[in-house]
Amino acid sequence: MEERELLYKCISGDNAAWKFFIEKYSPLIKSVIATSLASKKNTSEFNDAFQEVLEELSKNEFAVLRSFEGKSRFTTWLWTVARRKVQRYLEGLEDFEFLETETARNLQSPDKPVKDAEEHELNGIVKECLAGLDAKEGLVIRLYYISGLSYKEVAKESGIPEKYISTAIFRARQRLSKIIKKRYDK
């Protein structure tokens, strides 16, 4: 079944098509989650993140799937959607974990909570600035710097030819630098 036909059937409410979609694209979604949760070996978080992605794709009568415009390969688009949802899921976990452990850290060292809070704030600033990049720029920055992928792997995941990856990363870094300066240089 072609991707467009499968999407149409899913959007139309065909349960068999949705099951086939899950079966076909689960490996891609799970690889995104595995990359994002690389430092965490918690199976329940992995399963929760997988369910979060599926819920994101199917909520509001498949509104997210309907938003696919075909400007890129479907798998690249799906990878990006899954990555963003997993990041939002992890941010929620991080916020919860941060608040949960803050009291314990306060008891350990009076200076540590201040440093941790500053680091948490800096991470938030970086995430906020990354959100200001367009989808391709944000994707190459995250893949290369955050996920630690090679140029070849970034090319494969982003759909950008490998010979242009260094240029794409350079330009994305330049835009990110402008965003940071615009927001925080006063």
Structure in words:
This protein is mostly helical. The chain folds into two domains: 1-108, Rna Polymerase Sigma Factor, Chain: A (Orthogonal Bundle); 118-186, Arc Repressor Mutant, subunit A. It has eight helices and no strands. The protein has helices at residues 3-11, 15-36, 43-66, 74-108, 112-130, 135-146, 151-158, 165-184. Helix 6 packs across helix 8 (165-184). The longest helix has 35 residues, at 74-108. Mean pLDDT is 78; it is low at 95-104.
The count of helical stretches stands at: 8
Percent of residues in helical segments? over 70%
Task: Give a quick account of the main beta sheet: strands, pairing sense, barrel closure.
Answer: none
Average predicted local confidence, pLDDT? 78
State the fourth-level CATH superfamily of the largest domain: RNA polymerase sigma factor, region 2, helix turn helix motif
CATH fold-level label of the largest domain: Rna Polymerase Sigma Factor, Chain: A
Parts with pLDDT < 50 across at least 5 consecutive residues: 95-104
Please state roughly what percent of the residues sit in beta strands, choosing from under 5%, 5-15%, 15-25%, 25-35%, 35-45% or over 45%.
under 5%
Helix/strand/pairing class, anyone?
A: mainly alpha
The first-to-last residue Cα distance is 55 Å
**What is the number of E strands?**
0
What's the domain count?
A: 2
What letter string, H or E per element, gives the SSE order?
A: HHHHHHHH
| CA radius of gyration | 19 Å
The CATH class name of the largest domain reads Mainly Alpha
CATH architecture of the largest domain: Orthogonal Bundle
